[in-house]
Specification:
Elements lengths: L10 E6 L13 H20 L3 E11 L8 E11 L3 E11 L6 E13 L24
Antiparallel strand pairs: 1-3, 2-5, 3-4, 4-5
Bound molecules: coenzyme A.
Coenzyme A binds next to strand 2 and strand 5.
Length: 139
C-alpha cells in the first residue's frame, strides 16, 4: 500500500465560541474543545486510512491560553505517524479575536486513532505510513 503524506489528511475545523460553550468565567470549556478536536482528528484519521476510525487515546493536550466567548477558533489536524492499525494525529488550535483579528496558538494535542473494520475490530492495512517527519507542518 502506498504511503500517504500528512497533507493528504490535513483537516481544518472552524468554530465560533458562544455562551453555551463557556464556563462561569466566560471562557471556552476544556471538554467542549476536546470534543471539537476529537471530530477534527477523526476526520484526519479517516482521510488517511479511508476507514471508520475510533479514538483510542488522548495522549497530550496543552491549554496555553483561554479562549473567550465571541472568539473564533480554528483547529488544524493531520496524521503525523501511522503504525499497524493505529495513527497519531497532531492538532493545533488558533484562537482569533474578531475586533483585532489577532490570532494566537492556544492549544496543541496528540490523539491516537485506530482504523476498524465492519465488525469493530482493528483493521490492518489502512494506517499507511506517513512520509513527512513527525510534527512537520504539511502546509
Ligand atoms: C481502540 C480499540 C479498537 C483497540 O482494540 P483492541 O482489540 O484493543 O486492539 P489491539 O490491542 O489489537 O490494538 C490495536 C491498535 O490499537 C492501539 N491501541 C489500543 N489501545 C490503545 C491505547 N489506549 N492507546 C494507544 N493505542 C492503543 C494498539 O497499540 C494497536 O496499534 P497498532 O495496530 O498500530 O500496533 C478498542 O479498544 C476500542 O474499540 N476502544 C473503544 C473506542 C471508542 O469507543 N472510542 C470512542 C468513540 S470513537
Amino acid at each position: 500500500m502506498q504511503p500517504k503524506r500528512p497533507r493528504e489528511s490535513f483537516t481544518v475545523l472552524t468554530e465560533m465560541v458562544f455562551p453555551n460553550h463557556a464556563n462561569a468565567l466566560g471562557n471556552l470549556m476544556g471538554g467542549q474543545l476536546l470534543y471539537w478536536m476529537d471530530i477534527a482528528a477523526a476526520i484526519a484519521a479517516y482521510r488517511h486510512s479511508q476507514r471508520v476510525c475510533v479514538t483510542a487515546a488522548v495522549d497530550y493536550v496543552s491549554f496555553r491560553s483561554a479562549i473567550r466567548v465571541g472568539e473564533l477558533l480554528t483547529i488544524e489536524a493531520y496524521v503525523t505517524r501511522a503504525f499497524h492499525t493505529s495513527m497519531e494525529v497532531y492538532l493545533r488550535v488558533y484562537a482569533q479575536s474578531l475586533p483585532t483579528n489577532e490570532k494566537r496558538l492556544s492549544n496543541e494535542a496528540y490523539y491516537t486513532f485506530v482504523a476498524i473494520d465492519q465488525s469493530g475490530c482493528p483493521y490492518s492495512g489502512a494506517a499507511r505510513r506517513t512520509r513527512n517527519r513527525r510534527g512537520k507542518a504539511p502546509v
